Structures are given as structure tokens and as C-alpha cells.
Amino acid sequence: MSAVEEHLATRRAAGLFDFSFMGLYEFQGRPPIQTRDLDAVATGQIAYTLLLKDDGAVLIDATVWRLDADRFWLFTGRRGRYGGRDRSGEFAILALQGPRAAASSPS
User: Fold this and answer.
1) In which band, very low, low, confident or very high, does the pLDDT at 102 lie, cut at 50, 70 and 90?
2) How many other CB atoms are there within 10 angstroms of residue 98's CB atom?
3) H or E segment at 12?
4) According to the model, what pLDDT value does residue 78 have?
5) Per DSSP, what are the bridge partners of residue 96?
6) Considering the entire predicted model, what is its pTM?
7) Angle formed at CA 2 by CA 96 and CA 6, multiple of 5 degrees
8) How crowded is residue 66: how many other Cβ atoms within 10 Å of its Cβ?
9) Residue 104 confidence (pLDDT) above 70
10) pLDDT band at 80 (very low <50, low <70, confident <90, very high)
């Protein structure tokens, strides 16, 4: 299957992606300066955010996952020094995406 066919299959149905290459950082307490209101992210919820430099410029985009009241995982597209405990490579990170992804997932 070509890249175009894979893209269209995911857009029309579902596709499974391996994101294990991404950086994963665990924080006890708030992650570094970022744009998401973490008080609005419920336990177990994942949200898109931007990590910011000290001057407010965007450093990198990321995804933050609230594990409990004061514990977060931060996923980034590249590994770096973002603080927290570097857990990169410790877990397989798979994402089932597309309009039929929920129907394809086990209940």
C-alpha cells in the first residue's frame, strides 16, 4: 500500500500508528511553561499544548496526559531536555486514528 493509500484509508476508516519514537516525560507537578490550562484537563484526559521558551516563543508542540491530580505525562515529537523524568523508550505508544477508530477499538 502506498503512503497516499494509507493516508486515505485512515481518513476514511482507521489506521494504527506507532509513536514509540516520541519523547515521553513524566512530571510530578506541573510540566514546564506551556499553553494549556491544566486545571481544565480531567484525570485520564489528553490535550494538545505548546511548550514555550522563557521569552514566550514556541519551543515545540506536545501532548499532555493528566494521570492523576498532580502527575502528568508529556509527549513530544522529538527528545530533548524538557524537564521531568525521561521515560522515552520505556513504553510502546500506539494510536488508533480515523473516523471508525472507536468502532475498531475493543470495548
Assistant:
1) confident
2) 17
3) helix 3-12
4) 86
5) 16
6) 0.77
7) 20
8) 20
9) no
10) confident
